[in-house]
Amino acid sequence: MGIPLTDKPMLADALLSRSAAYIDGEWVEQGDSGSFVVENPSTGEQLAELPSLSRAQVAGAIDAAHRALPGWRARSAKERAQILRRWFGLVTQHAEDLAWLIVVEEGKPVSEARGEVAYAASFIEWFAEEAKRVRGDIFPAPDPANRVLVLKEPVGVCVAITPWNFPAAMITRKAAPALAAGCTMVVKPAEQTPLTALALAELARRAGVPAGVFNVVLGNAREIGPELTGNPLVRKVSFTGSTEVGRLLLEQCAVTVKKASMELGGNAPAVVFDDADLEVAIAGVLAAKYRNTGQACISANRVYVQSGIYERFTARLAERVAELTVGDGFEPGVAQGPMIDRAAIAKVEEHVSDAVEHGARVVCGGARHERGDLFYQPTVLADVAAGMKITREETFGPITPLIPFTDEADVIRQANDTEFGLAAYLFSRDAERIWRVAAALEAGMVGINSGLISNETAPFGGIKQSGLGREGSIYGIDEYLEMKYLAWAGSGAL
């Protein structure tokens, strides 16, 4: 059982507050490597003390997933779909409690937390339906008496290593297709935000997900990560996080040639042309930049504005950004919460300082918020230039750098001048330009006249060093399936 978390409105269902790992259908309260504390980034108060598992305990979770695999894989797709539908129903039923957990451990405003829960639930619903649509093919062979059969089978035991910024959605976006495909899973949530993961595990248990099929392990990533990526029983690793860590995980997975999907860092450009609808472009940049206080991999990290509307765009964006209310996620009207930790706010300060030092102009914000600690003012920087840190690195904070441009070909070159290729945005009312620029942008996803691009029906993922594979959509379940070819010879094949 968990402990009281805060003096904010309490959970309606106290059993969703857990302070133990979840392995093979049991709550594991003792960690062989000690314990760690989860804090509310908004208030600094301690939320829970959780067990830090050892490599041996994590190996035990993988063993449990391996033992559960044959039984889960043998269930019909319809039966797996029914269990997932029950999980979806329970997540929806307990949406307010899940949103509350997200606010207290991650810091985002409660309205955004509610949106994340709905987003997380949508993947469970979607892949419950996709479970019944996994199908192979039959082809004629060169010999008319033979047949070529292609089957799709679950890849096996999977590991999901998830980030702190979307503690519900990043789990369901991986676990739902894995379970739908007939795989079992071990989830390692971020140490900053494990409480939401444990609540999802409790709801999965209530939905009838069998013991060992869905496990949640807790602890220090440096200690237990090598077990998750190196254990030969694990056949697939899915990770969302930085490109730097993704490279390391891919190296570790290569030893046992695991299947891997990686949703890694971004440096998303947003390109606003002179012919854009100004208010549409402003709204799109606000949505793409300031959601979750800028702490999202698809946040607009560089905003290029054509010279004809640059000054008007700058003034209007600064006006809108200055209106954003900063505070605790439960306070009415709050649009921006805290940064997740001190390292995050230090990076924001470094990027702003470097930009100003090299000639950028602070139009609004530019410093820590008066609330102090992990709060930072929503900021707009004008006259940003290539080469500044804020254009080369992912800021992951509420800072919009505005970069003027004149020529379409040149701005495409600048937008593509990065190792990343996750998302990009463009704003224009010229259909020919939209087709031309969208084709030229090197990104796995392009938002056109919109800053909101992610949903369960769309294939989420990037190119270049922003990752491998796709999540969501009809393609997402393929990440958890292997193809088997049957060469059927003789008259019996006819």
TrEMBL record:
Domain Aldehyde dehydrogenase: 27-485
Pfam family, one: Aldedh
UniProt keyword list: Oxidoreductase
Catalytic residues, chain numbering: E263
PROSITE patterns named in the record: ALDEHYDE_DEHYDR_GLU (PS00687)
Record-linked InterPro entries: Ald_DH/histidinol_DH, Ald_DH_C, Ald_DH_CS_GLU, Ald_DH_N, Aldehyde_DH_dom, Aldehyde_DH_Superfamily, Succ_semiAld_DH
Family stated for the protein in its record: Belongs to the aldehyde dehydrogenase family.
PANTHER family (alphabetical): SUCCINATE-SEMIALDEHYDE DEHYDROGENASE, MITOCHONDRIAL (PTHR43353)
Protein name in UniProt: NAD-dependent succinate-semialdehyde dehydrogenase
